[in-house]
Structure of Proline rich protein membrane protein:
Amino acid sequence: MQHIGGRWRWRRCPLRRRWDVLDAWLGLLTALALILGVPAVGLSAGLATYGSQRTERAEQLAERRTLTGRLLEPVPADPSTTGFAAGIDRVPAKVRWTGPDGRRHTGTVDVEPGTRKGAAVPVWTHPDGRLADPPMTTAQAADDGVAAGLGTGMALGLAVLAVRWGGRRYLDRVRLAGWEREWARIGPRWGRHHI
């Protein structure tokens, strides 16, 4: 029972072949890569993505400004009456605002359901007053970092497991071929012995 679990591959044994040692090393390296390498690579990819997204957010905040616009149409409290799904927290509506150059602009921005006509709403614009998307939030940057870290870690983990599977299949074929060669050499002599 002491040979259960593949430990016999690490000990000197007449049944152990060179391919068994390679298989044991491949298993050990796979385990180390899954336990240490995959989390480290996933964490570093997630942190790098989070850092770049935070930099992009800072750039967006520096180049965009928020102005106050006025709602040109009432927004129903129930978004499903205008064709949107019930329960959403923002719906598009027409808004008018005055740019930094004094020109009036009109565009569509997302507002809360139930907002009345003429209500003041925040509008994100470029420096020339053109409508811009709101800058990325820190939560969005964190979500992107987590997604990148998990995606990279899972992809690396699958690649490690694929290498292990392919290596194991190759070693199994080599082992079987070796056993067949040995049996072809020993098998004919086996039948000569009688009890």
